[in-house]
Every structure is written in C-alpha cells, then in structure tokens.
Specification:
Elements lengths: L17 E4 L1 H6 E11 L3 H8 L9 E5 L2 E5 L20 E4 L2 H13 L2 E11 L2 E11 L2 H26 L4
C-alpha cells in the first residue's frame, strides 16, 4: 500500500503506511477484539522495515511472566548492514500498558483464544502492531464464510448487471 507523493516517490515506511499484514489470519481465526502495541526493535530492523520488508506469516504472540512477546515475525537482515545486523526471526518484546496486558492474560486464559498479529505499520515514526485476540475457526466455519462472501459478490454483480440493463 505505498502512497505516491508530489514527486512520485514512494512513502513506504512512512507514517500511516502498512509494512506487513497477515491476510490469512482473518480466514483462519474469528477475531474477538483488537489492540495496538509498540515493538522494541533494533536499528537495523527499523531500517529493513522502512524498505518494506517484513513477514507476519507464522507470527504469534505469547505472554511470558507478565510480558508480551512477538514470536515468528520475520524481518530480513538490512541490506546495507554489517556484522551488527539482527537475527531475522528473534523474539521481540511488545510494549503495552500493564492493565492491557492483564486484560489479555484474562482473555487468553479463559477460553480457547490466542494472540495473532494482524498488521505492522508506522505511527509517528514508530512501528506498531495490530494484535488480535482470536479463536480458531473450524473447517465448516471457513466454508460457511467463503459461501457467504461468494453469495454477496454474486448479488453485487447481478445488481450491477440490472443497473446496466444487461441480462445474463
């Protein structure tokens, strides 16, 4: 989702731009609630993310000893980095207020819920992650959602055809 400025330069890695999104999460899970958290990153990780490189494919969050950790997030090594480059798949600490973390602990412990990152984006020069409290879907739920989306798409198409005066 790179936006173009006046000079035609890409604003990837600027405020409001999404660096990575986990599209598969909305298919695999039912989203119960979302939270925004900061991430403790190293300098080369930020530079790599400003180049638009990050992947949330296998990422998940855990709560260990009252701290929130993001695991499985892949940020490739910075292309102009040297021996000080970061490890691409290291665990990264998420930054939230204590009462928010305690609320998450209660929600995850109560039911069959998990913490799934939905997207990474910049806000005021800082990287934020949209974190969802989610419950895994059964196979029949996924099929039901897919059928519902297909039916809605067909209804919109048919309505468009009728407006244009076409008969299919």
């Amino acid at each position: 989702m790179a936006k173009k400025g006046k000079k035609g330069a890409s604003t990837l890695g600027r405020d409001g731009s999404v660096v990575a999104s986990n599209r598969k999460a909305r298919h695999e899970y039912t989203i119960l609630g979302t939270y925004e958290a900061g991430i403790a990153l190293l300098g080369t990780e930020i530079k790599s993310m400003r180049e638009g490189q990050a992947s949330l494919v296998d990422a998940f969050a855990t709560i260990d000893d009252g701290e929130l950790w993001l695991r499985g997030l892949h940020i490739p090594e910075y292309s102009h980095g040297n021996w000080t480059n970061h490890a691409p798949k290291r665990a990264r600490k998420l930054l939230m207020h204590r009462r928010e973390i305690d609320s998450l602990v209660g929600k995850v412990r109560d039911g069959n819920a998990t913490l799934v990152p939905l997207s990474l984006y910049f806000v005021n020069g800082r990287v934020k992650v949209e974190l969802a409290v989610a419950r895994g879907k059964q196979a029949h739920d996924k099929r039901h959602d897919l059928a519902k989306r297909t039916a809605e798409r067909e209804a919109v198409r048919e309505l468009g055809r009728r407006i244009k005066g076409m008969h299919a």
